[in-house]
Design goal:
With 124 residues, the protein is of the alpha/beta class. It has helices spanning 10-22, 74-90, 104-113; strands at 26-30, 41-42, 49-50, 54-58, 61-67, 94-99, 122-123.
Length: 124
Amino acid sequence: MIYNDKLKYSDFLNQSITYLQQHGFENIKADIEGYETPKSYLKKGSELNVTPDIVAEKEGRKHIFDIGLKSSKPNLLKSKWLFLNTLSNLKSYRFKLITTRGHFKFTNDMLEDINLNLKKTIKI
């Protein structure tokens, strides 16, 4: 999710963190109050910061999670997902999207538009 939508969807972000804790993820960092903020990346040549929504570890492997919800700026969201996917491939991390009812089609359409082939999207 992009920065403009963080306040709007903060409840779903908390639900996602709870879901990950129940499934054995540890050292959770999230871009929300009460948690340590994950590392941000600055886009070269602009003022744009890219911060993953959630970063967690399970069985010694780092996982990057982003929330796939309807957004007013889909192009910005697409570029964020492409960057996070590339980063996770370079550093041998795992990248997954978390979405919910009412947002499945939006998320899948976005993934098709950018030819991003994620094996599994987490549905809460």
